[in-house]
Amino acid sequence: MIAISDKTLEDFEFPEVLKQVSQHALTSLGQETVLAIRPIESLEFRTKRLRMVSEYLLGIQNNSDIPSHHFKNLNEIITLLRIENSILSPQQLNAIVYNHTVFNNVTKHFKKFKILFPQLHELGSHLKINDHIPRMVNEKIDQHHRIRDQASQPLFQIRRELNRLKIQMTKSFQSSLNHYAAKGYLNEIKESMHGDRRVLAVKAPYRKRIHGTTLGSSRNSTIVYIEPIENVNLHLESQNLKFEEKEEETQILLQLTHQIREYTPHFRQQQNYLLEVDVISACGKYAQEISATLPQLSDSPEFDFKKATHPLLLISNRKSHLPTFPQDISLHDHQRIIVISGPNAGGKSITLKTVGLLQIMIQSGLLIPVDTHSLCGFFPQILSDIGDNQSIENQLSTYSYRMKNMRSLLKKADEKTLFLIDEFGTGSDPDLGGALAEATLEQVYHRNSRGIITTHYSNLKLMAHRLEYMVNANMPFDTKTLEPLYQLAIGDAGSSFTFEVAEKIGIPYNIINKAKKKISKEKLSYSTTISKLQKEKAEVNETKRALEKKQNQATLESKKSIELNQKLNKKLNAFETLFQENQKFVSLGKKFSALAQRYHNPKHKKSVFNDLFNLLQIESVKNTGESYHKKKLQDKKLIENLLKNDLNQYVQKKRQYDKKKTEQKSLKPLTIGDKVRISDSESVGTIEKIVKNKGFVNFGNFMTEVKMETLELVHENGTSINE
Asked: How far is CA 461 from CA 339, 455, 466, 472, in A?
């Protein structure tokens, strides 16, 4: 069972994401359904939903012209159909036909391109297409929601009679109009409409001379509106026919409603299918907007996000033309808890919220903005504590609220839990709060829970360094400008740069110095050392990037040289072959020329033929004999030697380079107890322990873990072995 509270969904702004997704839905039902999306427990259903959204996204990207899936809401119609003897209106019956047409178009498209849309095709493959329903409705009702004249024979007769009466009423009225106009009884406007009835505009003094029914008068009573008596009788007859028409139409609709009532479940299935397509379409269009993709999926409590971005931040930055920095972060069996530290405004909370939101999105069937090589697992329980949640209503202080969340964490955390906590343990005395946070985190660690916390507490940073499956991380700052780089660096704790930032923003030096004197030397030394190490690491990384760039250039040049040598060898071999063939033909040409000259002498003709036969035999032996091939190999060797001499300088330089690398590798290996320092660093420490090519170096006030190849052996006088 999934245990992700609404509070956790709000912490990571999941409802805001759903609001953005819902804007892509075509129907109000689709929008409501999107807003109600929650994490999916079933692995099978979750995987299918993700693949369907991915297929729809691929369809958008490939311009596959997916038909519109906009549909009518049939909920009221379906409710009416469940009531016996209920009657649907022509508009409602046409709505059923409309949905049926849309359903047919969409399912036929996915069937036609089922190689591209296998999951979307399967979604509606079990639903039948029943063309009998639209034919049945279209025979009775036209597209303007009017019952057709041919819907029944009685209706046809009634409407024909109504048309006859309408023509007769027009003729009769025109006759009365002409008659009374000629006598001067009518006003200048002559006629008007009273409701749906034509009336004569009679001058008031002549109203008693008109045979008919008075239906009204003008405001000043100068005009009286009278319907001629002939039209009164015809109108009465027309009204009777219209009543009969209405009764016949009701019977037609009643019969038609009864005929389609048995298909009510089918209408519900069609609507549910189109609703599902609307939701999938909205998710697919949102995925296109945030450049989302479908990563590799796992049912284990783990994830490996590569180039992950926060979707809300991405959209907001895009509108403001600002960059969004992707993050790489992972949790697995050997890296269960990450402790992120560093100065405020460096991106720690954004990284935490990115992880939480992306994990909730993928578990809810939404694609996420990560690299396709990312891995996303499943966490049945996600716990969070983000921001200041002081509650006036519940009379809880910030710290009390955090203590309540800490108690909940201790109570619920297990090996399938993901916890994400911002500023873990804050809100009280730093020493006391830090100690309680450390004890809580250690308890959760031993339960094999996964999680990420942000903190400024030094004891939590040391704890992450000490425990095997807990790691430190930091959000590096530019050591010169103290501007955040918004990149997560796994492996080292981060400095808060408290005094450096204070100095940068203009806090007086005397205040900073007084502050430094008020804290213990150990804490100041620890903070200073971390800051220094971060600066040195930044410089090392910069040097490393420069060396890698040079190495890549050298590799490229070497590759070009090899390709050039191969081309030269190929050309020389071809030249050698051509030269040998030419020499062969020149020699043969001379011999044949001599034989030809002897052939003109009749005495020598017989001997010429014998010599020609012998010459052909000799050449055949040369081409197939061992001596010929041996000579060819010798010539080839000679050319190869010439080429090797041309490349002597290159080979000699490469050997010198390899020799230098071998000499560096042959240096005495580092062992426990050696005095060492990190390359390009001045701090000297002692190796306490070596585990899997990683050394644990004691620098006095703290111990750190570094790769062995980055360490240099230091003499007793403090100089490096390489100096």
From this structure: 7, 8, 9, 6
Closest to 402 measured CA to CA, from 429, 426, 438: 426
Cα(367)–Cα(370) distance, rounded to whole angstroms?
9
pLDDT at 348: 85
346-350, 483-487, 498-502, 578-582: lowest mean pLDDT where?
Answer: 498-502
Supply the DSSP string of 501-554, one letter for each residue: HHHHTT--HHHHHHHHHTS-HHHHHHHHHHHHHHHHHHHHHHHHHHHHHHHHHH
CB atoms under 10 Å from CB of 48, counted, come to: 16
* 62 φ/ψ angles, rounded to the nearest 5 degrees: -95, 5
Which residue type does 624 have?
A: T
DSSP assignment of 551-580: HHHHHHHHHHHHHHHHHHHHHHHHHHHHHH
Measure CA 348 to chain center. 23
Q: Tell me the mean pLDDT in the region 86-93.
A: 94
List, for residues 292-323, the tens digit of each pLDDT value. 999 999 999 999 999 999 999 999 999 999 99
Q: Does 393 score more than 70 pLDDT?
A: no
C-alpha angle with apex 640: 639 to 642, nearest 5 degrees?
Answer: 65
Residue among 8, 34, 41, 4 at smallest CA distance from 19: 34
Q: Going by DSSP bridges, is the β-strand pair 303-308/375-376 parallel, antiparallel, or unpaired?
A: antiparallel
705: left (phi over 0), alpha (psi -120 to 50) or beta: beta
Please tell me the distance from the alpha carbon of residue 330 to that of residue 471, in angstroms, as a whole number: 11
- Binned at pLDDT 50, 70 and 90, residue 416 comes out as very high
- Model confidence over 182-236: pLDDT tens digits? 999 999 899 999 888 999 999 999 988 998 999 999 988 899 999 999 999 999 9
How many whole angstroms separate alpha carbon 500 and alpha carbon 543?
24
Tell me, what DSSP letter sits at residue 329? E
Closest CA to 673 of 713, 703, 709, 718: 713
- What is the three-class DSSP state of 303? strand
Q: From CA 415, how far away is CA 301, in angstroms rounded?
A: 8
User: What letter would DSSP give residue 393?
Assistant: T
Strand bridging mode 327-331 / 303-308: antiparallel
Q: Position of tokens 């406007």?
A: 189
What tens digit of pLDDT does each residue of 2-43 get? 889 999 999 999 999 999 999 999 999 999 999 999 999 988
**What pLDDT is attached to residue 569?**
79
Answer yes or no: are the C-beta atoms of 457 and 437 closer than 8 Å: yes
Asked if 321 contacts 329 with a C-beta cutoff of 8 angstroms, the reply is: no
Three-class HEC string of 584-644: HHHHHHHHHHHHHHHHCCHHHHHHHHHHHHHHHHHHHHHHHCHHHHHHHHHHHHHHHHHHH
Alpha carbons 676 and 684: distance in angstroms, whole number: 6
| Beta-sheet pairing, 470-474 with 337-341 | parallel
Q: Fill in the amino acid letter for 420.
A: L
Cα 541 from chain centroid? 31
What are the angstrom distances between the C-alpha of 73 and each of 18, 96, 134, 295, 342? 21, 9, 17, 35, 53
Longest dimension (CA), the chain: 157
Tokens of 152: 């029944």
Residue 341, SS3 per DSSP:
strand
- pLDDT bin (cut points 50, 70, 90) of residue 558 is confident
pLDDT in tens, 144-174: 999 999 999 999 999 999 999 999 999 999 9
